[in-house]
């Protein structure tokens, strides 16, 4: 579709360009033609004036010569040879001075009495020119003018004849005595014209070319002559009796330039001076203009092509930019959708997390309560001991007071105070343990947590006859919930106690140290270790190998989640020397600070 349109446009452009070229040619040719015609017209005027002035110059020469006494003498006495000879010489001299072809005197019948060319082979003396029209005109008292090819000399010329009278008084009144003739050479003009590129021709009243810068055109007519005219020409021997054919009958090569022309009448014989403006020149000028137009069109076409290409490039760039914009918009939309999906997922996750957290809290609480039940006996024992001591110290104090032994009484009372402080401590621990933690995040000194857990389990270790060796190698501070941390330690120690219950050796060790930014607590027992099938489910909630009432299977699950909440890990393996080892890793406070700083 697009290519069809551009093809159509191209064709239109070609048609337009052709029209411009053709119009340019036609207009340029017309203008050149009119310019050249104008030029020819001017040339014509100059040539005509030139010709006219020459013709005019000799108009009066024969008239003036007619009054010479020798001339009148010759006419009166044609036999006077002496006088004739004198006249011949005089005419010859005048002819040479005035640079005409010939000057001669005719008697009343047209016979030549004397002539300037008397001494040449083609002398006119004795020749009869009565047939020439110029003679007839002059003998009848009119100036005779004629152009023709000389009868005797065969040289063309312009003849001016004037009648001769005996005196000025007779002029126009009496018949003329004879005729004085001057023959002028006009072929000089042909030489002048030869510098012109355009053909120039001088025709007589009948349209016969007798002077021209094209030799081959001479004695041919502009248009065919009819029989009467031909006959007339023969009668006057004007052009030496040669047949006059029209110019058009010339071979083509000889009539180059013949065609359009401008004319101007010149002289007194109805002559036409004709200039043929060169058609080749018109064509040349028109071609030059056309070439200029073609060049201009080519430049315009190239410029337009360049502009078109530039615009296309810009458009391409624009469309690619648009494409980019569209792609970006699409991507943005996709991303927004993805973002929205993510947000929805995140909200769901949050919800799930919340649910998990509350479930976890509930689980922890349940685990704690279960543990409390288990610990109840131990706690009772733990409290019983100081309570019994208090009673004993109180009894002692009463006795010492009655004996007025105040010092001893005071000592026993301070024992009571110590014991009750110890009890308060135990109760306080239990309070803290049973309380549902609200994620009171704080800095925990792990050695303190270990101490607290050991204290709570002290009695149980005693009843089981197990030993607990605590090795605090490095002090370690972590971030988390202190109560929950203690709960984890109690869980692990209690499991260890359970594990060594039936073992020969009942040794439990706890080591605290630092290892690459982490606090590491290793709790190892001398129990049977963890069987492979148990290891798979170790941290699953409600997984237990203990008889009902003794274990709930929540301890490790809760412990693991508490440790994870502190960004830590809880792992278990069997020690190469036997027994299980639980390893607790929690990031140190310093490393947390570093993470926060970065
Ligand atoms: P419970 O102690 O109530 O059974 P726990 O989650 O604390 O629940 O422990 C799950 C199980 O892991 C125990 O039943 C026991 O089989 C195993 N276990 C825990 N600690 C040890 C240990 N130190 N040595 C061997 N087995 C252990």
Automatic annotation (TrEMBL):
<dbReference type="GO" id="GO:0005886">
    <property type="term" value="C:plasma membrane"/>
</dbReference>
<dbReference type="InterPro" id="IPR005467">
    <property type="entry name" value="His_kinase_dom"/>
</dbReference>
<dbReference type="InterPro" id="IPR017055">
    <property type="entry name" value="Sig_transdc_His_kinase_DctB"/>
</dbReference>
<keyword id="KW-0418">Kinase</keyword>
<keyword id="KW-0902">Two-component regulatory system</keyword>
<keyword id="KW-1003">Cell membrane</keyword>
<dbReference type="Pfam" id="PF02518">
    <property type="entry name" value="HATPase_c"/>
</dbReference>
<dbReference type="GO" id="GO:0000155">
    <property type="term" value="F:phosphorelay sensor kinase activity"/>
</dbReference>
<keyword id="KW-0547">Nucleotide-binding</keyword>
<keyword id="KW-0808">Transferase</keyword>
<dbReference type="Pfam" id="PF02743">
    <property type="entry name" value="dCache_1"/>
</dbReference>
<feature type="transmembrane region" description="Helical">
    <location>
        <begin position="286"/>
        <end position="308"/>
    </location>
</feature>
<dbReference type="InterPro" id="IPR029151">
    <property type="entry name" value="Sensor-like_sf"/>
</dbReference>
<keyword id="KW-0812">Transmembrane</keyword>
<dbReference type="InterPro" id="IPR036097">
    <property type="entry name" value="HisK_dim/P_sf"/>
</dbReference>
<dbReference type="InterPro" id="IPR003661">
    <property type="entry name" value="HisK_dim/P_dom"/>
</dbReference>
<keyword id="KW-0472">Membrane</keyword>
<dbReference type="Pfam" id="PF00512">
    <property type="entry name" value="HisKA"/>
</dbReference>
<dbReference type="InterPro" id="IPR033479">
    <property type="entry name" value="dCache_1"/>
</dbReference>
<feature type="domain" description="Histidine kinase">
    <location>
        <begin position="378"/>
        <end position="590"/>
    </location>
</feature>
<dbReference type="InterPro" id="IPR004358">
    <property type="entry name" value="Sig_transdc_His_kin-like_C"/>
</dbReference>
<protein>
    <recommendedName>
        <fullName>C4-dicarboxylate transport sensor protein DctB</fullName>
        <ecNumber>2.7.13.3</ecNumber>
    </recommendedName>
</protein>
<keyword id="KW-0067">ATP-binding</keyword>
<keyword id="KW-0997">Cell inner membrane</keyword>
<dbReference type="InterPro" id="IPR036890">
    <property type="entry name" value="HATPase_C_sf"/>
</dbReference>
<dbReference type="InterPro" id="IPR003594">
    <property type="entry name" value="HATPase_dom"/>
</dbReference>
<keyword id="KW-0597">Phosphoprotein</keyword>
<keyword id="KW-1133">Transmembrane helix</keyword>
<dbReference type="GO" id="GO:0005524">
    <property type="term" value="F:ATP binding"/>
</dbReference>
